[in-house]
Specification:
alpha+beta; 11 strands; 32% helix; elongated
Length: 201
Amino acid sequence: MNDSYKTILSPSEEILFKEKNSKFYGYAFPVTSEDEIKTHLDILRKQHYGAVHYCYAFQIGTDKIQFRANDDGEPSNTAGAPIYGQIQSFGLTNVLVVVVRFFGGIKLGVGGLISAYRTSAQMALEVSEIIEKTIDIHYIISFDYKNINKVMRVIKEKNLEIISQKMEMSCEIEIATRKKNAESIFDIFDTMFEIEIKLKE
């Protein structure tokens, strides 16, 4: 079972690719929602006021993949698709790549556009720090305080990450574990006396 994915650590630095007087500014951003994507695009539109095209592609998600490629007025499939192709060839998800074009007065033709957008996207991803993250499952464990040692022993032995905890007479701990270990972790707590475990919604 594949329970990890590659994404970028932080927004890339701006790159500039020039082709026949046209300028292509490339950017890559880590994103997890369409709202974040809209925010990045709005900022770039203000920053590059006067540019002709703000072409982009994104992919979000690990189990359910969402993606889109947008040509923003360029001929169909000459901008968004080559940008998305680079996201795929780097094997990334939870990422947005935007290429902002200032037209230089000389038409590039379909082949020239595809090449320019592909190269700009590639350069933006090459300057990004690519990281691997695990796909984690979150559980809520509920129990009486008297059982705390039992629960903590398993958490320590299995090296589970504690996300939050509420320690009172009745306790609640949120833990995270890698997807591939999730079933066995659930079974351990599920078979323990006086301890409840459920998937976090």
